[in-house]
Structures are given as C-alpha cells and as structure tokens.
Fold each of these.
Amino acid sequence: MPAMSQDELKGRAEALSGDLTAWRRDLHRRPELGFEEHETAAYLKARLEPLGLDELREGVAQTGVVGVLRAPESRGPAVLLRADMDALPIQEVEGRPYVSEIPGRMHACGHDGHMSMLLGAATLLSERRGDLKRDVLFCFQPGEEGFGGADKMIQDGVLDLADVGEVYGLHLWSTMKSGTFQLRPGPLMAAQDEFEATFVGRGGHAALPHQTIDPLVAAAQAVAALQTVVARAVDPLEAAVVSVGVLEAGTACNIIPDTARFHGTMRSFREDVRATLRRRVQEVIEGTAAAAGCKVDYKLHKGYPAVVNDGAAAAHMSELARDVVGDDNVIECPPMACAEDFSYFLNARPGAFAFLGAGGPDRPGHHTPEFDIDESVLPRGAELLARLALQPAAPSGRARS
Ligand SMILES: [Zn+2]
Ligand SMILES: [Zn+2]
C-alpha cells in the first residue's frame, strides 16, 4: 500500500473507535458459553449484513458465523482472520456500566473484544474492497474455551469457503502493556491435555490398615511421583508442566476409603514432548497403583495442540504491527503455558497468532471476575487485521500440504 493509504487506514480505524467500544460492550452484556452463542451470532450477522459482503454463512460449527469478502481480481490464496465468540461460567463483579446481564456468565477472556476488532476489520475492508488483492474470510468461531470450536469449524469446511492460504488471529491480553503487539515465531502457546485417575482399593477401619488396600496413600504417592515426569523424562532445555489440581478421597479421619481420585493437566510446546508426557504420566500412575495393589481407572482427555507460529507469517505480522503501533511496541514475547484452539488453524495453514496488550501487569488476569480490557486498543487490533488482509505475506512456497 502507498504511504498515503496507510495513514488513511489508521485514521479510519481510529474513527471507528466509538463503534468498536459500543460493539464490545453490547457483546460484553450478553455473554454466552461455547456452542450456545445464538444471540451473539445474530448480533454479528446484524452488524455484518450492511457491509455488503459477498457471502455470509451462519451455523458453521453450530453457532459460528463466517463472512466472505472477495477481491475484485484475486491474485492469490485467501486470508482468514479469526475471532472467538464464547464467554465463561463466571459471575462478573458489579459496578461496570456494561456489566454482564446474564447471571453466572461473563466475557472474562476478552473474546467480546476479539469480535469487535474483527467487525472493525470487516468494516474497514468493505470500504476498501478495491484495494483487496485476495479474498478475505471473517471467521467468528464458537467454543474456544475447551470446546475445540476451531477444529469443528475446519471439519465443517470453513477453509474451503475460499482458497485459504494464510490464517491470522489476535488475543487481547489484560496483563500486557496496552497497545503492544506481542508474538514470536515458533511455539507461542502450549499444548494441553488433561488426565484423570481413580485408584480403587479396599476400604476399612483406619486403625486396621493391614486389612485394607489403601487407595488414598497410593494416589498421594502417584501425585508426588508425577512431579518426576518433567524433571526426569523431559529434556531440561524443553518446557513442560504437569500439575494436579484436584485430589479427592475419604469421608472421615478413621475410615480408609475405597477410592481416591485426582485430576490434572499437562502442558508442552512440542508434539514429541507432549507424547512423552502422555506416556510417562500414564506409566507412573499405573505403576504406582500396581505397586500398592490398587486397580486404577486412567483417562486421558486430549486437549488443544500447541499454537505454533509459522516463521515467515510471524515476521510478516510483526512488520505490519510496527506500521500500526511503531517499532517499540512490537515485542517478541516468551511462550505462554495457556492453550488456545487457534492451533488447529495453524496446523492446517501457515499463519500467526499474536497478543494485543490491553492493560498492564497490575491488571486482573484472564478468567477472573475482575477481568477487563483497555478498550482504547481496539482500533489497533482492527487496523492490524485489516492490514493483514490488504498485504498478505509474499508467496514463498510456505504452503503446507
Ligand atoms: Zn480464555
Ligand atoms: Zn481466550
């Protein structure tokens, strides 16, 4: 794009700031959980319809909404821009003018802002359709918070609505400095799997342990032994986490229970490390149970793969981000152990994911009742998404098969 046109885009994005905040607040008041985003989908459709997109699909992966804007003369594969739609089962703190109107539901991860920014990008691009060299997909995805909505959208054929060659997404982050874009090439966010184990022994009187098979002691040993998985089975130069967040057993101090159960999570950034964690966690649990004479029911709940940015796409996104916020505000961040299902898009096509700082280190974190975002950064996000569509990465034979 010529420089003049860049300034125009920046100005236009800034001029949208009132709309972006209003859209975010409308969505914030009406949070819906994964695959229940019916009102949200209707809201998005109502905002997208007047833009005169070439196609508007509803019901992709149940409640997803996808808009397609075609370039007058497409000269390459399409660009997919994604925002997630779902909220969380959290009761928001009182007092905000835009507080959630739905009890026990809250946009506590910023997905309301993601939708607002993508609506903004759709608005900016529909006004500049003549500048488009590639088709653009505005992908509003349901069920990010543990439901794997991205995977379901891909299975539902979202990548075939146009010839998608690149995928990009943004995540607002309340504890990162407002107005900074933070990303890195390679692994950005962790792969996540959950595991559950129920140790089955034989209960009895706590004063007669020799007549029982104590599942509680065995489960406690297993929880402690799991801490050796990362320490002893993973290359010290690789990052991984194994944490147990739930441990339950027993009803009274003088009764040895029949069962003991725990529930944990594992995080990693590479598929080979992920496979090691899965294997060793199961071996440690089953081995500890066997040593104690317990039976064990072990379940692995496979979660999202790691978010791994394509090197060239991440470099391209960083470069365009510098046009939006200046060199000093584009930061190469360390990987983060949270998980995100944008990974499914990145496993299917080259692309990149970035954080947009919307607060600072003292602000409440994501998934808390106090969570909020600095809305003044929304135009920056909308502008970057629009630029990614207007200036796709130079073709470099990066397409994955
Ligand atoms: Zn979240
Ligand atoms: Zn999120």
Note: The pocket of zinc ion (ligand 2) is lined by residues 109, 111, 144, 171 (CB under 6 Å).
Amino acid sequence: MTDWNDEVDVLVAGSGGGLAGAYTAAREGLSVAVVEATEQFGGTTAYSGGGGMWFPCNPVLRRAGVDDSFEDALTYFRAVVGDRSPADLQETYVRGGARVIEYLESDDDFAFQMFPWPDYFGAAPKARTDGKRHIVPAPLPAAALGELATSVRGPLGTERLGEPQPEYLIGGRALVGRFLLALTKYPDVSLHLNSPLVELVTEAGRVVGAIVERDGERTAIRARKGVLLAAGGFEGNDALRQRFGVPGTARDTMGPWGNQGRAHEAGMAVGAATDLMDQAWWSPGMIHPDGRAAFALWFTGGIFVDRDGQRFVNESAPYDRLGRAIIERLDAGSMSLPYWMIYDDSAGPVPPVQASNVPMVDHEDYVRAGLRYSAATLPELAERIGVPAGALVETVNRFNDFADRGVDEDFGRGDEAYDRAFSEGASPLVPIRKGPFHAAAFGLSDLGTKGGLRTDTAARVLDESGAPIPGLYAAGNTMAAVSGTVYPGGGNPIGASVLFSHLAALDMVGR
Ligand SMILES: Cc1cc2nc3c(=O)[nH]c(=O)nc-3n(C[C@H](O)[C@H](O)[C@H](O)COP(=O)(O)OP(=O)(O)OC[C@H]3O[C@@H](n4cnc5c(N)ncnc54)[C@H](O)[C@@H]3O)c2cc1C
C-alpha cells in the first residue's frame, strides 16, 4: 500500500490547457492539486500570442451574428481529418467547444473576443473562409494577478531575449492568467511549480494517484476521483522524438523545456494505448542567431527555394501545411536545411515576416551568423547561398510572371482564403524585382507534438483493448490529437486542450 503524502479529489499534471480541468473540478466542488513540472505556469499555451480557440458556434460568435452550424463545422472537420481520429471524438470536439465557452463566460473571470482566422483547408467542404470559428481570450492586466503574474510563462520575447514583462497579458497568457485568477478563489485548490508527475500509482487496475517530484523528493499524491495528464507533448525530448519518428529537433521546437513526455511515459507504463506518436503541429522556422528555428508566419512577400533554387510550396499556406511540405521534401532527399526565403529590397533587408513569434533581433546579427545574405543581383545572391544561379533566376522570373498575372500556376498561392488573410484579400504574390536581393535561412519548427494517449469522448485514457483505464484522463498534446494528421484550423491545439480537460473534470465530478 502506498504511503500518501497528500490527498485530493483531482490531480492535474500540467498547467496549460489543463487549467481548464482544474478550474472545472474546483468550481464543481472538488479539491484539486495542479502540479507543474517547470518554474512557471502556462506551458506552450502561454507562448501563444493569440490563445485562439477553434470552437464553432460558440456564444461569442453567436452574439456576433455568425450564421454557422455544428453540422457544417463537423462536415468540414470530418472532411479534413478523415478517419485518422475516432468519429465520436471529432464530434465531441466540434460540438463541445461552444458549451465550454458558455460555462466559462458564466464566471466574470473569463471574457473572449471573436478573432476571424480562416480555416486551414479553404477548399474543403464547409470551410469557414471568413474565419468565424475562432475566438481569443480578452487581455488581462498583469496587476489583476498580483504576485502570480510573474509565474506565468512567456512571452517569448521576455523568456528568450530578456524583454521587459508587458503590463497586459494577451493571448494564451491571458487565458492562463484568467484560469489562475479564477482558481485562487477556490480554497481547495493548490498550485505547485517545479513538481513533475513522474509515475502513476495503480491499485487493482485503477489509477489512484501519482508520484510527483518536489525539490528532488518523491511525493505520493492520492487522487480520489482521478488524474488528468495535460502535460503537453514530448517535443523537448530528442530521444522520444527519435523513438517515435518525429521529424525535427528539440532545439527547434516552440514547446517549453518541460515538455519532455514524462506524462506520456507514465501513461504508457500503466497500459495506455497511444496513437499519432510521429505527429506534431508543424511550421516553417526562421533561424535566429541563437541557432534555433522558430515558428514564423504571416509572410508579406518572398518565396522559399530549396537547394536547387526551386520553389517547392505555396509559401502563404497555413504553417502546418508548409511544415508537412518541408518534411516531404526532406524525406525524399530533395531538400536540406536550411532552405531560403528569397525577397527583394521593397521593405529593406529584413525578411517580410510579420509574425516571427520569437522577436527578431538586429539584422546584422543574422548576417554575422550566416543566416542572411544580400547581393546586387540574383546570380550573386545564388552564389552566396550555394544554389544554382540559373535556376534561381529562372524561378524568380517565373514567379514574377505569376505575380503579374495574379495566378500561381505551380503551387496555387493565393487560391485559398488563408493565403490572402494577411494581405486583406489581395493577392499574396509580390514580385521580386527591386535590388538588392536578399536571402534568409529557414528550418523546420513545430508548436509541439500531438501524438499521445488514446482517449474516449470523456477524455478517459484507453488501454490497448479500448477499455478506459479507471481514474486516468488525458487532454491537449498528451492525448492522441482529435485532429489526427492535419491542423484543421487555428485554435485546434488550445481548443482541444481546454475542452478535453474540462470534459475530464466533468467526468470525474460525475463519478
Ligand atoms: C507562438 C505559438 C502560438 C500558438 N498559437 C496558438 C493558438 O493561437 N491557438 C492554438 O490552439 N494553438 C496555438 N499554438 C499551439 C498551442 O499553444 C499548443 O499546442 C497548446 O498550447 C498545447 O497545450 P497543452 O495544454 O497540451 O500543453 P502546454 O500548454 O504545453 O502545457 C503543458 C504543461 O505541462 C507541463 N508538464 C510537462 N510534463 C509534466 C509532468 N510530467 N508533470 C507536470 N507538468 C508537466 C509543462 O511544463 C507545461 O507547462 C501556438 C503555439 C506557439 C508556440
């Protein structure tokens, strides 16, 4: 028998979307302990500048008069995800988000805003090309959180570059901050930093608690109702990435350092079935002088070329689709890293990347690090970056011709709504003509892995036979993603983490 050091109804491992589970359990009258592996709350969720959630037909959208339906949203989701995740899980996700927002909005600590963000497969049936399935949390003044404010992870500029803490929490930080604020109002909630869950404790096939390391000591916490693993992905663990065949590296992931897959391992050790373990939320990564490729989006110009000086993708496509195109090329051996963004001098030597997530530092630092080159002519630029000059000139000429005609015959750049989201509907094809010409180095980044423990629609973890493991729940990037091998729309990762954490807590309440 275990010697318990602590006892609660619900134990939550991870403080990103998992806070939705902690909050729900507390609000429904259960005692809760949140254990967070690192020195700050929030995980990758707190890195998100948007904190967007893809929750069709939710009350925020309904109030704004959006004429969507769950059926349409489900048609879209099913069309793009296919059978790579269970149909009932997909339906739960698509229909469930609206209810969770209703639940949160009935507490004054929460507020959300519509933030149109086109679905990522604009040509799929019932895609919402006006982006009205996406909401973000309202900003929160840091002062509202008092001392807790410095315990919220991020933003990336503060963490990686030492920029000052902003006075407002926005995006994912606002979401995390709002959950923390709400949680402090419940007496039976304890929040623990530097406390990784390392092992699950079972009795007669049921998960009854967990071992958590605190200050290097093993602490046994009994969880009467259950344990929720919402500990993110294993993107920060190169050994696990290799074991499961996840392209890319821990160096180039956006996940915070604590996302090492220990909760995945704890789940597998008690018999949890897994799925999608080679999958991540991908993106192109701008390589910064610290040597790390970081998730970048919102390109207002430029083209990507491979080592043959050829374009290989619609550069304005959603980042996960870009990432998958890069992986395909790498797998086929027709590309090596870095590849290059080629752009002209219309906006100066800094690449036309409007959202680098990790703020760009001084241009000269990139030049010194061999990550940016400039030249008066394209052939000279080609020589500097080691691609065939004739091919690069031909590629740019062909692209300029497409730009002049407003049609990308090779990769369809501009064909879908998302491609035009950052140019106010105008063509994203911007000719490359004004010298000097520039090249910026890019790699492969990811927003985290998305393979994990298989769950049912109540977020109960399943064993290999498909039966729930009593007392064990998973959500977010610790669960096998409801979105399978695609990224249907901005707001899926955080949405799935918040919703399935919430549903896990409700299930525990009911038991
Ligand atoms: C710049 C950026 C912008 C993004 N924008 C969006 C967006 O707008 N919308 C969207 O949906 N997605 C977005 N994403 C992706 C999204 O942020 C993540 O996929 C999502 O937040 C993951 O949530 P999670 O709860 O699964 O994990 P996380 O938020 O990563 O939280 C996991 C937490 O668990 C902790 N942990 C790990 N192991 C243990 C353990 N053993 N015990 C205890 N704690 C542990 C970690 O330290 C971490 O704090 C963005 C990502 C980035 C990088």
Note: Residues 87-105 form the longest helix (19 residues).
